[in-house]
Amino acid sequence: MARKSYFVTGTDTGVGKTMVSAAILEAAAALGKRTLAMKPVASGCDETPEGLRNDDAVILMQAMSESLGYDQVNPIALKPAIAPHVAAAQAGRTVTAERLVGFCRGLQMRPADLLLVEGAGGWRVPLNDRETYSAMPAALQMPVILVVPLRLGCINHALLTAEAIRRDGLTVAGWVANRPVPDVMTCEQETLEYLVNHLAAPCLGVLPWQKNADPRMLATGLDVNCLFEN
């Protein structure tokens, strides 16, 4: 079974969770680790002859070392590019934390050194009227990797997200600073130093902006050894 499992979340939507996840998978593979990944719920899927397909899920499939069918990587694929709970309601489907837990446990039983589970949006994105996505990693007691975009306001968003994760009884196993746009933010170094000193979790790396991002290239800027300790 998967020796190490982590949930990947961000401070918001559009912060680069998928590319960071893919880079972590590539960095782990460079250490000789066997890797798996999944994105249990994905909205904004495209119609294809094989069914609904999500670009993020495909990127994860290409980056992980082990082979899985698309439906195992993205079991709930939704067409509208909107919040998952709204997309599910429009599709006449119900998404629950219990169901997502079942999908994740299924992959945890497969042999691998690392399983990454990518969330949608931020920590409190709704799954339905009663539950947020955070209920799934909480039920699994899954440590969290936080993706922080280097842009104005990221300190507040990162600290609040880390606080919510810990309040839910989980550990922030590490965080990655990501540049989601080509323009470098004002006082970037000072921002990084503050986050390093106050997030109370290891920084796995600072990823540059790339127009055509290559997870293998991004992986060279990550140190993921701590994810395999203990």
Write the layout of secondary structure elements.
Blueprint: E1 2-10, H1 17-30, E2 35-38, E3 41-42, E4 46-48, E5 51-53, H2 55-63, H3 70-73, E6 76-77, H4 84-90, H5 97-108, E7 112-122, H6 135-140, E8 144-149, H7 154-167, E9 172-178, H8 188-198, E10 203-207, H9 215-219
Parallel strand pairs: 1-7, 1-8, 2-7, 3-6, 8-9, 9-10
Antiparallel strand pairs: 4-5
Helix pairs in contact: 1-2, 7-8
Short structural summary:
This protein has about 230 residues and is α/β, with parallel strands linked by helices. It is built from nine helices and ten strands.
Can you tell me about this structure?
- The chain contains nine helices and ten strands.
- The protein is an alpha/beta fold and 230 residues long.
- The protein has a six-stranded parallel beta sheet, with helices on both faces. It has a two-stranded parallel sheet with strand order 3-6. The chain has a two-stranded antiparallel ribbon with strand order 4-5.
- A hairpin with a 2-residue loop joins strand 4 and strand 5 (51-53).
- The chain starts with a strand and ends in an 11-residue tail after the last helix.
- 46% of the residues are buried.
- The model has no long low-confidence stretch (mean pLDDT 95).
How many DSSP-defined strands?
A: 10
Averaging pLDDT over every residue, what do you get?
95
- Class from helix and strand fractions: alpha/beta
Q: How is the biggest beta sheet arranged? A: 6 strands, parallel
N-to-C terminal Cα separation, in Å? Answer: 16 Å
Gyration radius, to the nearest Å?
Answer: 17 Å
- Which band does the percent of strand residues land in? 15-25%
Helix fraction bin: 25-40%
Shape: globular
